[in-house]
């Protein structure tokens, strides 16, 4: 499935998102779908002006038409996760009051279960990583949420580094070497054990400090 072309929230329509960001988001949803044996995985980013949830990357069901689709703030379980900043695992959506069946039907796929975790940047939720109909049952529900949350952390930190690096270079895209390095990091974190991922996240946080000179620019 070719990578979709889109703009990040708050970006100007004339400035397309660099390929690096699109590769990153696409790799995260592909990893999440594979790790959980899911029917689909997606990342919503929050439009900073309207608060809308915008499909930015999709793997599996809906990958051909959903990128760019938006829903009002607070819609469904993804909207609840975005507002609360808390991950959630619902194994039977038929009994969930937060689940919006009409919204799911509009996407062309209605799941029976889902997992979702927030993407946090500078203490604010900037998006939601969601997995539909996970089928891998080798871990406990809590462990699954831990893994999903680590993937969300990886996406948020990497986006933070990319956004700040782009700002420091006045909008110039990162070099191919750096882009490929970040892509390899993302793929490796998707298959590593939780302890290794935790260490990698710490190293990424340290890298952020190097890029920003220790300043809080959030």
Explained architecture:
- The N terminus is likely disordered.
- This protein is of the alpha+beta class.
- Helix 4 packs antiparallel against helix 5.
- The protein is 44% helix and 17% strand.
Task: Provide keyphrases for this structure.
single chain; about 220 residues; alpha+beta; six-stranded antiparallel sheet; 6 helices; 6 strands; disordered N terminus
**Total DSSP E strands:** 6
Helix content: 40-55%
- Report Rg: 16 Å
Largest sheet: 6 strands, antiparallel
Strand content: 15-25%
How far apart are the first and last residues' alpha carbons, in Å? 34 Å
Q: What's the helix-strand series?
A: HEEEHEHEEHHH
Q: Give the count of helical stretches.
A: 6
Structural category: alpha+beta
Question: Going across the major beta sheet, what is the strand order?
Answer: 3-2-1-6-5-4
Q: What is the average of the pLDDT values?
A: 78
| Contiguous uncertain segments of 5+ residues | 1-17
Molecular shape: globular
Structure described in brief:
The protein is built from 6 helices and 6 strands. It is α+β, with helices and mostly antiparallel strands and 218 residues long. The chain has a 6-stranded antiparallel sheet, sandwiched between helices.
SSE layout:
Elements: H1 19-36, E1 40-46, E2 53-60, E3 70-71, H2 76-84, E4 88-90, H3 101-107, E5 114-121, E6 124-132, H4 141-168, H5 176-191, H6 194-212
Antiparallel strand pairs: 1-2, 1-6, 2-3, 4-5, 5-6
